[in-house]
């Protein structure tokens, strides 16, 4: 087991970036020529089995691999896979990104008639919508634009997105890329976005054709980049089996089982002393064995090199090759396997069967994408008109609107009435932001609407930055901003963070607004003769307790990183064209929380004996700035329970005739899930939602579960949610269903899932309901 170490080699700080530069020239195609196809018309291989779309995909893959030399096989184990000219196979760049739109990456080439793609809100913002239908629809739009670029020869079809890591620590620079801290939200986001991207058709889940191939990353327990001498290339994440099962692995399991994802990416870090990309238990036994992934496992970029060179896992490069391939890695993002696999084969450390197994998984995915079908390509009619279309731009705007969270609205200050305002002062370092709005792993947007531009569409504006950058250090034009506020009828302050503060390779050390931003807010709000609206642009949570308590700050919005249309969405919310319905997907902690919690502590559960407070709303019960799920509206929504059982029996399955064999104890009774008869064991929950306000609005119905005491389980856990639109004065019925064997289970210390027996409590807004879950009396 290696201890975490400080970065000792500056070339390792951003290996992904270095590899992107190195491999950019080796993409499938470039410069906008037509896409190159294997098995095309006139090809000498057209009649061979691997070129025949009517044959089973795995049969075709095996036929192709059997025709390759060892050198050809090895050259296909890396992301910039070499072509095989004698078989008519072009080179292929596996590495493309589509986190919230087709992104700049080695496999994507914007330019010419294809200069841009739709940029949706960053993932943390999209998560705030709590709208799974929207997540899937965004994925479909991204896949349209990916296919358009592929058809023009400007991109591949394998996209290493989404990032579904749990946002464990609020300082993590990449938390913005994730769906937040909750496993249930992250799991549902993962499956929905993957389905939208891939849009499988024909055949079963594993052998269906794909529009694009998605990849869920970074498996697993990866959520530290660079913090106080600890970095992701050396970090050993010490994680309990319990936390792996009920927190860290939950979204990845959903990716595979519910989303049918075509790929999973292993991470840089070690997990309990073993690099994740070299761990057979994590890869071969769990992803491929238990979850039955039908696809390929890829390393994070240069991970194999990192675990050999930085973590010193393996005495020779050939040992690292053996660890990776035998653990279940199929594709290396980086050059390591191409450089050392033939030597490993000659030394007997790997077999040709190991190589063939890896290639079978990657080639099968390429065949599901149609890359070996010649010119007879699916989706070949998608083209230039599908990039940045009006419908795609409209969806980006709607997603940004739904993502905005109203944190504070004193005396119903919002929405503002444009007719009552002569001038609005728009102030702050992010007040005219453009690139900041799209966050990281982004493409080239169709167009930007900054907050200043959006607000100017409603009212005459006066602009003063107050801080020349988000760092807001040293001499700043704060006085000019105060003067602008003094003469305006209302003030909109747009402050927060950007990628200079939080990003890949850049974790934060605190939760405070940088530099003099707090001073700017307080001074401007005090000087303003009209209402002051504070807009926070950030991926991570901020301790803005001062603004929440300041009576001069009338309203606070969290805009996240809202994408290309963010400024229009912010203005639509401020002036009432859109009724906000977003909710926080992460807990906003006070600064003192991170003062006493090390980012390196992976434990989710609180430990009273050491004073460790626990993480996320599930296990932390201390003071917060804003809780997970917080979000106000211009309407008032009420709930009434229509249907939910008060008692349910759990029957044992198969030969489990002695119930005590299935229990963890006779006092804290819980049945092992694999011993329960799960088919049809469900809890229907029907709720009527009434909009008691005078504005139409959307509302996220959140169902929280409190299990019986005594199982070291979360204090409460979100188990279901649904977004519903309700017209003013109307009522809508929402039907939710809970799977007892999935949703109402706890993980014990061994990582075994169990169904606790006893009284289960549910909370839905102002409602509470109790379900008594008992063993079947005929068996007990």
Automatic annotation (TrEMBL):
One GO BP annotation of this record: xylan catabolic process
Transmembrane region(s): none
Signal peptide: 1-34
GO cellular component: extracellular region
Record localization: Secreted
Any one GO molecular-function label of the UniProt entry: alpha-L-arabinofuranosidase activity
UniProt keyword Aminoacyl-tRNA synthetase present: no
Coiled coil spans: none
Pfam family, one: Fn3-like
Start and end residues of each Fibronectin type III-like domain: 699-768
InterPro entries: BXL, Fn3-like, Glyco_hydro_3_C, Glyco_hydro_3_N
Keywords: Glycoprotein, Hydrolase, Secreted, Signal
The protein's name: Fibronectin type III-like domain-containing protein
Native source species: Zingiber officinale
């Amino acid at each position: 087991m290696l201890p975490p170490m400080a970065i000792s080699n500056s070339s390792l700080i951003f290996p992904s970036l270095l590899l992107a530069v190195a491999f950019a020239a080796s993409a499938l195609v470039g410069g906008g020529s037509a896409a190159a196809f294997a098995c095309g018309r006139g090809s000498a291989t057209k009649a061979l089995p691997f070129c025949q779309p009517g044959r089973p995909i795995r049969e075709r893959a095996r036929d192709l691999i059997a025709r390759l030399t060892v050198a050809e096989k090895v050259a296909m184990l890396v992301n910039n896979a070499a072509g095989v000219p004698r078989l008519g196979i072009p080179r292929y760049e596996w590495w493309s990104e589509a986190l919230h739109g087709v992104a700049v990456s080695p496999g994507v080439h914007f330019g010419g008639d294809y200069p841009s793609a739709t940029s949706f809100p960053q993932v943390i913002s999209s998560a705030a919508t709590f709208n799974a239908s929207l997540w899937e629809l965004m994925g479909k739009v991204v896949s349209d634009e990916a296919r358009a670029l592929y058809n023009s020869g400007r991109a591949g079809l394998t996209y290493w997105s989404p990032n579904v890591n749990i946002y464990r620590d609020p300082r993590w620079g990449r938390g913005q890329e994730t769906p937040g801290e909750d496993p249930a939200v992250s799991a549902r986001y993962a499956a929905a976005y993957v389905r939208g991207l891939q849009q499988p058709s024909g055949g079963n889940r594993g052998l269906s054709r794909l529009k694009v191939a998605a990849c869920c990353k970074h498996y697993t327990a990866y959520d530290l980049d660079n913090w106080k001498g600890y970095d992701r290339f050396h970090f050993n994440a010490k994680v309990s089996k319990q936390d792996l099962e009920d927190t860290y692995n939950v979204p990845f399991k959903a990716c595979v089982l519910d989303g049918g994802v075509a790929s999973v990416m292993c991470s840089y870090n070690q997990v309990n002393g073993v690099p994740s990309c070299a761990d057979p238990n994590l890869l071969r036994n769990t992803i491929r064995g238990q979850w039955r992934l039908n696809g390929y496992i890829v390393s994070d970029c240069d991970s194999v090199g990192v675990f050999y060179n930085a973590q010193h896992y393996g005495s020779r490069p050939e040992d690292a090759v053996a660890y990776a391939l035998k653990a279940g890695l199929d594709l290396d993002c980086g050059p390591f396997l191409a450089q050392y696999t033939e030597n490993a084969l000659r030394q007997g450390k790997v077999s040709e069967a190991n190589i063939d197994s890896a290639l079978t998984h990657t080639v099968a995915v390429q065949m599901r994408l149609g890359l070996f079908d010649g010119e007879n390509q699916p989706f070949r009619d998608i083209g230039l008109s599908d990039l940045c279309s009006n419908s795609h731009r409209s969806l980006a705007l709607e997603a940004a609107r739904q993502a905005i969270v109203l944190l504070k609205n004193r005396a119903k200050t919002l929405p503002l009435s444009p007719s009552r305002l002569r001038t609005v002062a728009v102030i702050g370092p992010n007040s005219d932001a453009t690139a900041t709005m799209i966050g990281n792993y982004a493409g080239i947007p169709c167009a930007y609407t900054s907050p200043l531009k959006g607000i100017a569409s409603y009212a005459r504006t006066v602009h003063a930055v107050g801080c020349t950058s988000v760092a807001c250090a040293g001499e700043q034009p704060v006085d000019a901003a105060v003067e602008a506020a003094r003469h305006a009828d209302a003030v909109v302050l747009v402050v927060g963070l950007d990628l200079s503060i939080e990003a890949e390779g850049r974790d934060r050390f605190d939760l405070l607004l940088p530099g003099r931003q707090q001073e700017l807010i307080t001074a401007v709000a005090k000087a303003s003769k009209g209402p002051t609206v504070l807009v926070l642009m950030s991926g991570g949570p901020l301790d803005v307790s001062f603004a929440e308590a300041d009576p001069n700050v009338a309203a606070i919005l969290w805009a996240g990183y809202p994408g290309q249309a963010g400024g229009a969405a912010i203005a639509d919310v401020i002036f009432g064209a859109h009724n906000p319905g977003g909710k926080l997907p992460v807990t906003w902690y006070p600064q003192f929380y991170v003062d006493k919690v090390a980012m390196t502590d992976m434990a989710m559960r609180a430990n009273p004996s050491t004073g460790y407070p626990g993480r996320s709303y599930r296990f932390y019960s201390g003071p917060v700035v804003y809780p997970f799920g917080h979000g106000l509206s211009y309407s008032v929504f009420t709930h009434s329970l229509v249907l939910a059982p008060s008692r349910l029996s759990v029957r044992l399955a198969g030969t489990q005739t002695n119930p005590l064999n299935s229990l963890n104890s006779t006092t804290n009774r819980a049945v092992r899930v694999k011993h329960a008869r799960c088919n049809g064991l469900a809890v229907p929950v029907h709720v009527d939602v009434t909009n008691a306000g005078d504005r139409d609005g959307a509302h996220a119905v959140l169902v929280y579960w409190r299990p019986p005491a005594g199982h070291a389980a979360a204090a409460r856990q979100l188990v279901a949610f649904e977004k519903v639109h309700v017209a003013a004065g109307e009522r809508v019925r929402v039907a939710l269903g809970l799977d007892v064997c999935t949703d109402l289970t706890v993980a014990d210390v061994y990582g075994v899932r169990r169904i606790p027996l006893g009284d289960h409590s549910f909370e839905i807004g102002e409602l509470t309901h109790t379900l008594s879950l008992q063993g079947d009396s005929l068996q007990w």
